[in-house]
């Protein structure tokens, strides 16, 4: 929920809860952002001066070529960059498509302008529209897609370094990725925090769910301030972990898989340029994306995808839905049946869990109505 204008600047205090266990060996926030700038300069110089190896790793610029590379066993640090396109088949509307997506359905909330619903200052004064929308879009009403389970398989095979997602639907977690496997660049519904700087008490998903579904505006039980899911609103910074992990992950990446994103939102979009020059990059999307602007390319601002030029040597575009692309990929890897079985099992598990929750709610409701109006017991 952040755009190009909201890249954290050195002067700004990053509004996030530190995660000490993950950052004990990391530098400070300021240094992390400073490093980002250094990386940028390093990349700029290396592309301008033609430094860095452009070794051809793939034998063919196709999904087959990428599958052969994975099967060769040389690929152990895969990064996935994913966006809204991986969740559309789960039924989640795309937040960023004007007209077709979410913004079109916001009229009923009487907002001054649609984006206000995700603007932190507006939210602090008028939280109602956001929570009404959150109820409609509540994570957990949806099941992860084939694509989500494909990423889970990469983890299970021990070759996923991390998945960077722009989505806030938590479907990566539902599919079995854990905190350390994930960078939720635009935050998550999974945890929530009190908005008061002095308090910042954390709340879990169940707590927030209860509030959202009882149409109550979530208030902190310690200080009565608003409680907000940890999704990144306009006017807020990206999580610190995004910057610290990026610095560690991208230089080590040996295959970048980009799925379901048109790579138009910064700083997420610039991540494709952060892998080494020999690192193959595959895009599975409904359209080509991330290509370098030809003029900027001439000026030496490289890093964009190059699928088609004479110089193309590492970028592969597979134009399809993310689910179809992942099935095709899995087939080439010899994992197709395993993937389909995983999806079947997990969806059945989620369905039966939903069924059990429904039943326990119904019986709780019956029990409470029974206590109000005791039913006469049958004589024995
Ligand atoms: Zn509080």
UniProtKB/TrEMBL annotation:
Coiled-coil positions: none
Cofactor entry: Zn(2+)
Biased composition (Basic and acidic residues): 1-16, 346-362
Cofactor note as given: Binds 1 zinc ion per subunit.
Catalytic center residues: 186 (proton acceptor)
Signal peptide: none
Function in brief: NAD-dependent protein deacetylase.
PANTHER family per UniProt: NAD-DEPENDENT PROTEIN DEACETYLASE SIRTUIN-2, NAD-DEPENDENT PROTEIN DEACYLASE SIRTUIN-5, MITOCHONDRIAL-RELATED
Stated name of the protein: NAD-dependent protein deacetylase
Source organism: Menidia menidia (Atlantic silverside)
Source lineage: Eukaryota, Metazoa, Chordata, Craniata, Vertebrata
């Amino acid at each position: 929920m952040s755009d190009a204008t909201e890249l954290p600047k050195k002067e700004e205090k990053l509004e996030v809860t530190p995660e000490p266990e993950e950052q004990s060996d990391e530098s400070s926030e300021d240094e992390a952002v400073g490093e980002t700038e250094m990386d940028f300069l390093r990349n700029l110089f290396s592309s301008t001066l033609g430094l860095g190896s452009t070794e051809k790793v793939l034998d063919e610029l196709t999904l087959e070529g990428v599958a052969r590379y994975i099967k060769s066993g040389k690929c152990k640090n895969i990064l996935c960059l994913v966006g809204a396109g991986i969740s559309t088949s789960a039924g989640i509307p795309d937040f960023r498509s004007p007209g077709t997506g979410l913004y079109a359905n916001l009229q009923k909330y009487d907002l001054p302008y649609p984006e206000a619903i995700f603007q932190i200052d507006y939210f602090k004064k008028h939280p109602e529209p956001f929570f009404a929308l959150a109820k409609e879009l509540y994570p957990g009403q949806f099941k992860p897609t084939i694509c989500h389970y494909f990423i889970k398989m990469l983890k299970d095979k021990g070759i996923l370094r991390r998945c960077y997602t722009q989505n806030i639907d938590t479907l990566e977690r539902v599919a079995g990725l854990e905190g350390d496997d994930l960078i939720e660049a635009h935050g998550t519904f999974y945890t929530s925090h009190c908005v008061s700087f002095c308090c910042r008490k954390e709340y879990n998903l169940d707590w927030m769910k209860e509030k959202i579904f009882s149409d109550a505006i979530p208030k902190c039980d310690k200080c009565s301030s608003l409680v907000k899911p940890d999704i990144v609103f306009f006017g807020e910074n990206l999580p610190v972990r995004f910057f610290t992990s990026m610095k560690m992950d991208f230089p080590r990446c040996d295959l970048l898989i980009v799925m379901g994103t048109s790579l138009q939102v910064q700083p997420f979009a610039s991540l494709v340029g952060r892998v080494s020059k020999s690192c193959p990059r595959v895009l599975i999307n409904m359209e080509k994306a991330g290509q370098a602007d030809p003029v900027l390319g001439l000026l030496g601002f490289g890093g964009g995808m190059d699928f088609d030029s004479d110089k193309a040597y590492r970028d592969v575009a597979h134009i399809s839905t993310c689910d179809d692309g992942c099935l095709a990929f899995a087939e080439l890897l010899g994992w197709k049946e395993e993937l389909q079985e995983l999806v079947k099992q997990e969806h059945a598990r989620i369905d039966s869990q939903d069924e059990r929750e429904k039943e326990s709610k119904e019986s709780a409701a019956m029990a409470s109505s029974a206590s109000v109006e005791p039913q006469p017991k049958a004589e024995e």
